[in-house]
Amino acid sequence: MLLAKKEPVKIRSEHVDIEGILELPEHPLGIVLFAHGSGSNRFRHRNNYVAAALHAANMGTLFVGLFVCLSVCRLIDLLTQVCHMA
User: Fold this and answer.
1) Are 14 and 73 in contact, with CB atoms under 8 Å apart?
2) Tens place of pLDDT for every residue, the chain, 86 residues?
3) Dihedral sign computed on CA atoms, order 57, 72, 13, 16
4) Residue 18 in 3-state DSSP?
5) What number of CA atoms fall less than 13 Å from residue 55's CA on the CB side?
6) Residue 57, Ramachandran bin (φ over 0: left; ψ between -120 and 50: alpha; else beta)
7) Residues 56, 71: Cα–Cα separation, whole Å
8) Which pLDDT value is given to residue 12?
9) Number of Cβ atoms within 10 Å of the Cβ of 9
10) pLDDT at position 33
């Protein structure tokens, strides 16, 4: 499936900015977050394989690197912002 949108995004919060890559098909059913730490990234074969399967199922993906400590509640707030951007 061809992606309608693939672009870098920056999620701004009060204390930290998180950069990522947003990939969306034409009419996505939803967005799956790939949050990786220092041992993984969006270029890993496994991550790309899973992302391709999600895109084929008309799901968008957002890859972000989490090199900072965030509480679960704060992460949910940030994801809510991303969903409103899409």
Assistant:
1) no
2) 567 788 998 888 777 777 888 999 988 999 998 877 655 555 677 878 888 899 999 999 998 876 654 555 677 777 777 777 65
3) negative
4) strand
5) 19
6) alpha
7) 32
8) 80
9) 16
10) 86
pLDDT at position 18 is 78
Distances (CA, A) of 20 to 62, 65: 7, 7
The neighbouring-strand residues paired with 12 are 17
CA-to-CA separations, 71 to 22, 40, 62, 77, in angstroms, rounded: 22, 20, 19, 10
For Cα atoms 84, 2, 23, give the angle at the middle one, nearest 5 degrees.
30
Task: Extract the tokens encoding 64.
Answer: 């972000």
* Close Cβ partners of 55 (under 8 Å, ≥ 6 residues apart): 1, 3, 23, 25, 61
